[in-house]
Design a protein that fits this description.
The chain is built from eight helices and four strands, in the order H-H-H-H-H-H-E-H-E-E-E-H. By secondary structure, the chain is of the alpha+beta class.
Amino acid sequence: MTHKHNAKRLAKAIYSVSDENNLLESVHGALNAMNDLVKTESEFRAFIQSKRIKSDQKISILNQVMGEKGHPLVSDLLFYLKGNKAPRILLDLTKLFNRYYKEGKNILSVFGTVANEMSDEEKKSLKISLDTILGKETDLYIDVDESLIGGIKLRIENTFLDASVQNQLQVLKGELLQL
């Protein structure tokens, strides 16, 4: 079985168990915290990949180290993750779990690109507006691209909306050239 199939099977199982036991929030947080550690800390990645440390010892160590950020269900994953492929399986599993989590919670991912850094108040206002317009909870991510001049570009799931000044100038240029 390839690691993608293994990750998919594990993600479905963890999601089902955590949903049935009302643990979605804590498992979601713990899984993302562990995944972030694997991505950023080489020592932690080596710990996860180690075949010399027994799985039950890894689980015990992880439960102690992660503390409140961890969850026993996520720690138990280490029983199934071994060797060089462990970090990749964890990454794939986390992505799949996050997709199931967002679908279950009716959350849309929205990626915005703006010309200048937005204040927290502006981000909050934009999020509230998007939540209202879309009729769903949004998970808003904002990037800054100074080449935009002004306005905003939005990607909502697979839909792209461009309300940037740059795009408006391109449309105007196209209209003028047709005259």
